[in-house]
UniProtKB/TrEMBL annotation:
Name the UniProt record assigns to this protein: Uncharacterized protein
Annotated region (Disordered), positions in chain: 1-27
Bias (Polar residues): 1-14
Highest taxon of source: Eukaryota
InterPro entries: AbiEii (IPR014942), NT_sf (IPR043519)
Length: 255
């Protein structure tokens, strides 16, 4: 194992895994990905922001539009109870351009075919004191999602809000998907997996950004809106007041 790898990790590689090469490097799904996944689990919010900050600078340097989405976006919009272990970023770029933009001494990049096939690339970013901020060394997963895939809007123009985050490196300002766009993405995600966090996120968005959601409700997929409320009603039978509020926010007029 390289010195850099041993400093980053407190976990030895298994017999099936290889040592992590020093970045810039492309991860291999069998040799390095399992270890990167494992070592990215113990992140703090501070690590997430620092990784986002670095990735954002690399994307901006290449003129690639981007915006935060997922759990970190919800946190930035005000849901301070929302935790996440990775960073989701919507981008307007082709997979090859995104990978080239993030070819950097702190980043492990995905295989091109993997990102091109799914519309999402899993990158791993190094954080730690050697990069100018006094935090523990940590690998952070950053998922770049191509516009139009996995809930990301087809264009980021007019779909974002600006939010400020405080970090050990100072105050930073980021573009974040708007509450309306996050609601659209979450409704779609719920159709695929029905995860507890999706119900919680949609409830929080509708209750805390009622006016914004109400204004765009007619543009959201009607079947997805109805299915969400019905599934919510079945899942939480004691929260009929919330069901009523959700129906109002999403303009569901069915009995």
């Amino acid at each position: 194992m390289s010195d850099t790898g041993s400093q980053r990790s407190g976990s030895p590689a298994t017999s099936e895994e290889h040592d992590l090469p020093d970045p810039p490097a492309q991860w291999d799904i069998d040799a390095q990905l399992p270890r990167l996944e494992r070592e990215s689990l113990n992140v703090t919010h501070e690590h997430l922001i620092l990784a986002l900050d670095h990735v954002g600078k690399l994307l901006s340097a290449k003129g690639i539009p981007w915006a935060v989405m997922g759990g970190l976006a919800l946190f930035m919009l005000g849901n301070k109870n929302r935790s996440t272990r990775d960073v989701d970023v919507a981008i307007e770029a082709k997979p090859r351009a995104a990978i080239e933009a993030l070819r950097d001494r702190r980043v492990y990049t995905p295989p091109l075919l993997s990102m091109a096939g799914s519309g999402c690339g899993r990158f791993y970013v190094l954080t730690g004191p050697e990069y100018g901020v006094k935090v523990d060394r940590q690998i952070v997963e950053v998922d770049l999602i191509i516009a139009g895939h996995l809930g990301a809007p087809r264009t980021l123009s007019g779909t974002t809000a600006t939010r400020t985050a405080h970090t050990a490196a100072g105050e930073r300002t980021y573009n974040v998907l708007s509450a309306a766009q996050l609601c659209r993405a979450k409704l779609h995600a719920l159709e695929q997996r029905e995860a507890e966090r999706d119900f919680n996120d949609l409830e929080w968005l509708c209750m805390n950004y009622y006016n914004e959601i109400f204004e765009v409700a007619d543009t959201l997929d009607k079947m997805e809106r109805v299915n969400f409320v019905e599934k919510y009603r079945e899942r939480y039978p004691g929260k009929q007041d919330v069901v009523k509020a959700l129906k109002e926010a999403l303009k569901i007029r069915e009995a």
